[in-house]
Design a protein that fits this description.
With 135 residues, the chain is of the alpha/beta class. 50% of the residues lie in helices and 13% in strands.
């Protein structure tokens, strides 16, 4: 009897968290090789709008706010990027979840869940309660 070969396929569609997006756009070595490879090959990268707001806050803290408009231009210029707004299904998922996450992280996780795709994140709080993550 032959054994069946199982190949783990890389997802062609993912949701991305704030730090992963920041490191991806800046080609920073803090982004894991696995995450970088998946993002490089992905057909669609989903960004919840809350991630763009968190990116603004992150860049402000790091005194990089002057670069924010350019970063956003680079993000939206990528034809693979799909920005999703906070909608009623996501809101319902967040308010009904009991994951114990901050609201912004809950929105990101809910987006991943509702889209049925993995979430690229290094966030330990998220990875402890949500298993469909890549890092």
């Amino acid at each position: 009897m032959q054994k069946k070969a199982f190949f783990l396929m890389e997802p062609n569609k993912v949701v991305i968290d704030t730090h992963a997006l920041f490191w991806f756009v800046l080609a920073d070595k803090k982004l894991s090789n696995k995450a970088k490879n998946i993002l490089d090959k992905a057909d669609e990268i989903i960004i919840p709008t809350i991630v763009l707001l968190e990116l603004f806050s992150l860049m402000k803290k790091q005194n990089l706010l002057v670069s924010y408009p350019e970063i956003v231009k680079r993000i939206i210029a990528d034809s693979r990027i799909k920005i999703l707004t906070l909608d009623i299904p996501v809101l319902g998922s967040v308010t009904n979840s009991n994951l114990g996450l901050d609201s912004h992280d809950a929105v990101i996780v809910a987006t991943s869940q509702l889209q049925g795709v993995p979430l690229i994140t290094k966030d330990k709080k998220i990875t402890e309660v949500y298993k469909n993550t890549i890092w």
